[in-house]
Design goal:
mainly alpha; 2 strands; cytoplasm; tubulin binding; EF-hand-dom_pair
Length: 181
């Protein structure tokens, strides 16, 4: 590889390879890359242009360079894949020049997080969690200040006083006994 202006070093390529290799996988070491991350690298770095190189081309090249039973490629296999993709991506350039142009697209890049879930707007969440707007049985679970009442707000607490459920004369025994005496 000729080093000079506009060329990417192997170290830059390896750094980009490692960043994409560990993307989305907490157990990844960065030494090997799966097909999904290889496709992401090709997409994010604009190796896939929709004309010369498509997603299908990338998948085919990945399958071609990986070991038969393997599901991942090493950095060496990755460079081999790039060698195959370069002439397709940069038609009309020589093999070495096309490869350098391709490396230029990839070197120093990191995975982009397009479409990553954003935190919900606070106003929407506040409206949903404002206990003063609750109605029905849910309202019973909170006191006037909006604090939860714990178990007392969730369960109907049984009356363990010993009186029968719907008995209206609860607490009147002593007065009745005194009247009779």
């Amino acid at each position: 590889m000729a080093e000079g202006s506009g060329t990417a070093s192997v170290a830059d390529m390896e750094a980009a390879f490692q960043k994409f290799a560990v993307h989305g996988d907490s157990k990844a070491t960065g030494k090997e890359m799966n097909g999904k991350n290889f496709a992401k690298l090709c997409k994010d770095c604009k190796v896939i242009d929709g004309k010369g190189v498509t997603g299908t081309d990338v998948d085919i090249v990945f399958s071609k360079v990986k070991a038969k039973s393997a599901r991942v490629i090493t950095f060496e296999q990755f460079t081999q894949a790039m060698t195959e993709l370069a002439p397709k991506r940069f038609k009309g350039k020589g093999q070495e020049e096309a490869l350098q142009s391709l490396y230029g697209l990839i070197a120093g890049k990191e995975p982009t997080n397009v479409g990553v879930t954003k935190v919900a707007k606070a106003s929407a969440v506040d409206r949903l969690t404002d206990s003063s707007k609750y109605t029905g049985s849910h309202k019973e679970r909170f006191d006037e200040s909006g604090r939860g009442r714990g178990r007392a707000g969730r369960e109907e607490m049984p009356d363990t006083s010993g009186y029968v459920g719907a008995y209206k004369g609860q607490g009147t025994y002593d007065s009745k006994v005194k009247e009779d005496a």
